[in-house]
């Protein structure tokens, strides 16, 4: 246990978050996502796990230390439901609320078509698989920067 860090963040996840650079993408996936296979294609090359958490809990923990990119529109993306791209299921609404809390204002995620999501996930820095069992609990977060002191 360390002071000032969310205890839901394990050492492997903290290592990856620290190693990522500005603009690098992080996938947070549900239990049905082919996480291990996709993770092998990422920069990190191995799967990270936060098995005991929902997608929203994992996003909340990650965003306690990870700044989101403010320079791009796709700072956060959600996997669209096949045939219903505008539908936002409860799992995605919960993650959107976690993003809004972390950012201190509404910052809507972009929708990403399912197969485009897989392609973007393979190009990500890392994949974290959660214990989320609801469908479409898959997200991509883009790391931002921490500005210098004034």
Automatic annotation (TrEMBL):
Tagged with keyword Isomerase: yes
Assigned keywords, A-Z: Isomerase
Presence of keyword Isomerase: yes
Stored InterPro entries: RbsD-like_sf, RbsD/FucU_mutarotase, RbsD_FucU
SUPFAM superfamilies referenced in this protein's UniProt entry, alphabetically: RbsD-like
Reaction catalysis annotation: beta-D-ribopyranose = beta-D-ribofuranose; alpha-L-fucose = beta-L-fucose
PANTHER family for the chain: FUCOSE MUTAROTASE
Descriptive protein name: RbsD/FucU family protein
């Amino acid at each position: 246990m360390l002071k000032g860090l969310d205890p839901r963040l394990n050492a492997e996840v903290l290592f990856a978050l620290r190693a990522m650079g500005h603009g690098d993408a992080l996938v947070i996936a549900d239990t049905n996502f082919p996480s291990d296979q996709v993770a092998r294609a990422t920069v990190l090359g191995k799967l990270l796990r936060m098995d005991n958490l929902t997608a929203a809990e994992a996003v909340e923990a990650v965003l306690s230390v990870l700044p989101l990119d403010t320079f791009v529109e796709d700072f956060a993306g959600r996997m669209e439901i096949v045939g219903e791209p505008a539908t936002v299921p409860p799992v995605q609404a919960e993650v959107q609320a976690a993003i809004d809390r972390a950012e201190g204002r509404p910052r809507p995620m972009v929708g990403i078509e399912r197969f485009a999501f897989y392609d973007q996930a393979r190009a990500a820095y890392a994949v974290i698989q959660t214990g989320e069992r609801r469908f479409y609990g898959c997200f991509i977060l883009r790391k931002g920067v921490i500005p210098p002191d004034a």
